Amino acid sequence: MTGVVLKNVQKKYGNVTAVVDFNLEIKDREFVVFVGPSGCGKSTTLRMIAGLEEITGGTISIGGQVVNDLQPKDRDIAMVFQNYALYQHMSVRDNLAFGLRNRKVPAATIDEAIARAARILSIEPLLNRRPRQLSGGQQQRVALGRCIVRNPKVFLFDEPLSNLDAQLRAQMRLEIKELRSRVPTTSIFVTHDQVEAMTLGDRIVVMKDGVMQQVGTPLELYRTPANRFVASFIGSPAMNFIDMAVAGDGDSFKLSGEGLTFRLPNRRFPKLGGSVGKHVRVGVRPQHLVLGAPSGDGQVGVTGKLMVTEQLGDEQILVLRVGGQDIRVAGVDPELDFSAGGEIETFTAIENLHLFEQADKEASLLRAA
Amino acid sequence: MTDVSLPQQRSAGFFGALAPGGARILFILAAIGVCLIFAFPVFWLMLTALRPASEVFYVQSGSTITIENFFEVLEQPIVLKALFNSFVIATLATILSLGITATSGYMLSRFKGVVPNTWFSLIYVFRCVPYVSWVLPLYFVTIKLGIFDTYWGLLLPHVAVHICFFSWIMKGFFDGIDPSMEYAAMIDGCSRWGAFIRVALPAALPGITALALLCWLYTWNEFLFALILTAHEVPILTVVMAQFVHEMGMEWHLMSATAVIALAPALLITIFGQKYVVRGLRI
């Protein structure tokens, strides 16, 4: 069993706190993705797990053993770096063998491990080349190979795909996914790309400014974001937000703002009671807005002036000006013709609404407290 | 703005007005001119070295060519000793300087904190002091330490100067190497020190080779330190060469022959090592 446990982990550079009180339990063979904008502390956390960065506070344990004071080489981990970090003066074969030779593994075993890794990653023809002679995708494959020959307890990925072009990135994403089924090792993957996070992770950790925002499966994050940041970071195009004032009105709440009025039944939104007289942010995903007028109590309407249409071939994205706010509507039939400046009516079911408080944490008003 | 771009346009017009290939011919002529300016003194030196003593002032009209001068200087024990000393000093200075500056440059490139900052400031200050102004203090220091006119007395000042200059160049080499390569090595089973020796150092090797060649040549050519800090015990080639000028007159033919001998390693390095120097200084 090789889980990784982080308890109250902190990182400070002088007075600057890079990671705040990070708690996470990663199960054996689990694939966890740390995602967030640059500077959010995700790479720092990964480097602390690797031992490349000192831990200011808290403990990190790998496979039940606290590793705070262990050197990187003694933690039995392998890491893939953004810029591949292959040893330029060695052949691909020597790159793969380096870690095993350092551990005094017999030559025959090394050859076997290299042959296996090369087969898994189809880099057999490249073994005698130098890293400089390889393309970016090939280099990253060799870097993956360098990890799997070692058969470590944990794989660490530090934005391994961000140096590749979009097409290659999508392909390598698949390869990493496929690799997982062949070599099921506990993995931590750092990225700033929410698509990578959603497609690769068993669980995702969203971070911002050194603070963990939410941990959950991709679907949990998508369906029940804990706060406005997670809601806007996960999903593409990003969630629409409208600022609305809350008023109590018998057995329903009346939300109004930007020229819109929503009526929401009390029993469906129990936490909204505390916000009466205040403003909240209402979020709705572009995919959940449908063309047409709302019918019945279970739906609310969003009407605005059409500013721009973005034709993507399989769908159109409409940008509506609602009050002072731009609202995107995705998944619109690409065959439909719209004239800019016209009024467009859309609606969505109230289940699709997300409500966030206007306080500094902007926490969700939907999730159970 | 227009004033600035005007001369460029005019010169383009000038070259444009030439016959096709004219610019190329002009360039070649200029290159030949520059080569002549640099090569002619060397050519004259070699010619003088091949002339008997009586004819050095009629180099252009005489016809006698002899290699007698070379035998004559090589028969002098002091020249042989100086050749040997210069070689040893240059080689030792190179090994010591590069050994120290490789680690010091690496520290400056990779580590932050009080020690690297102090070291950096120290090097910076000494680098700003003109080289010539060190000579006299060094003379007294070597006398006080009792190492005047010994290998150490010349070697240590040379190494000190090299540390100030080469630490910067080395820092540049290591700055150009991605540190994640060393992190990968540390995860792959190396210590911090091992990652430096086994991964960073080999990656910087082309640069270090170039620096080694330049360092060796610099020490071999150096005159001022050698003149002031050595005497009869440790004769150095550049100083011995100058001693052909004495109260009896100047022995141009012998001085030239010694100079040609001293030139040989520089020439060999330039011809065969040029490739490495250029490649190394480009990284």
Main sheet: strand order of chain B: 1-2
Query: Which residues of chain A sit in consecutive blocks of at least 5 with pLDDT less than 50?
Result: none
Query: What's the assembly state of these chains?
Result: heterodimer
Helix count from the secondary structure assignment of chain A? 8
Globular, elongated, flat, extended or rod-shaped: what is the shape of chain B?
Answer: globular
Quick rundown:
The complex is a heterodimer of chains A (369) and B (283). Chain A is α+β, with helices and mostly antiparallel strands and 369 residues long. In chain A, 23% of the residues lie in helices and 35% in strands.
Can you give a write-up of this model?
The complex is a heterodimer of chains A (369) and B (283). Chain A is an alpha+beta fold and 369 residues long. Chain A is 23% helix and 35% strand. In chain A, the strands form 4 sheets. A 6-stranded mixed sheet of chain A has the order 6-7-8-3-9-10, with helices on both faces. A 5-stranded antiparallel sheet of chain A has the order 13-12-11-14-20. In chain A, strands 15-19-16-17-18 form a 5-stranded antiparallel sheet, with no helix packed on it. In chain A, α2 packs across α3 and α2 (92-102) packs parallel to α4. The two termini of chain A are 33 Å apart. Chain B is mostly helical and 283 residues long. Helix content of chain B is 77%, strand content 1%. Chain B contains 12 helices and 2 strands, in the order αααααααααααββα. Chain B has helices spanning 2-17, 22-49, 68-75, 77-110, 114-128, 135-145, 151-175, 180-187, 192-221, 224-229, 237-242, 252-282, and strands at residues 245-246, 249-250. Chain B has a two-stranded antiparallel ribbon. The longest helix of chain B is centred in the N-terminal third of the chain and has 34 residues, at 77-110. Chain B is globular, with a radius of gyration of 24 Å. Classes of the chains: A alpha+beta (369), B mainly alpha (283). The interface between A and B is medium-sized, with 24 and 16 residues.
